[in-house]
Amino acid sequence: MLLDTASLYYRAYFGVPDSVKAPDGTPVNAVRGLLDFIGRLVRDHRPDDLVACMDADWRPHWRVELIPSYKAHRVAEESATGPDLEETPDTLAPQVPIIEAALDAFGIARVGVAGYEADDVIGTLTTRATGPVDIVTGDRDLYQLVDDAKGRRVLYPLKGVGSLQVTDEAWLREKYGVDGPGYADLALLRGDPSDGLPGVPGVGEKTAAKLLDTYGDLAGIIAAVDDPKSKLTPAQRKRLDESRPYLAVAPKVVQVASDVPLPAFDAALPAVPAQPDLVAALAHRWGLGGAVERLSSALRP
Q1: By three-state DSSP, how is residue 142 classified?
Q2: Nearest to 115 by CA among 61, 191, 71, 70
Q3: DSSP state letters, 197-209
Q4: Which of 124, 208, 220, 255 ranks highest by number of CB atoms within 10 Å?
């Protein structure tokens, strides 16, 4: 089981009231919400391995070089030496180090790699996996990794983190008319304002799905642009032709990496907290006793 950690603690932050605070008044709603969510996931799914995948760089330079608008609207402050600072709610940012400390104290593997997003870590671990993989994320971009034959599915939280939509190929085909790899082509064709991807003008979700159904994939659509006998409308042909520079680089931006140089780590689900004294100290310091006990109970075989 691979956790898109940032997307989940964002969900927890907005799903748990900010009245949940530490004894000193510091909001800990995202911390408690995430720990409780992980506890539920462990109880309900009992994965052999659990990895909290992290955004070491939420806006990698190599993606921005290809499409400068990539996530540009979410930049709070640019940095010349490291990742740009992302616009984050004032009361969420201080909770992230607490989340990281809690995951480490429990012994839940936490993996991030400089220059890559959590999506890329997830893509690499999914590619390397020899068995089924559950990806838990609130980011639809990871639908591209769904593969029934290999047992790869996405568990997408609905209504905060209260219930999960199980996303497999049948669900994708019913909702979007594509399979996992086809979702990446659909996303880059229609664009995604939340990620600053412009898409092809005039090509929305339904048109993108129809083009992919007719021509198979992005390469097939480009071939149709060059084929005067294809059934593209004049407007579609013109817009796709004018979008060639974007379509040439968009796949590398949209597709998650599968070759991230990962550090060595132990992904095994812990049966007991790795550092029980530290877990107890964090629970006391931040008023997380209930969430810590619930997660500890869920981890026990």
Answers
A1: helix
A2: 61
A3: B---TT--HHHHH
A4: 208
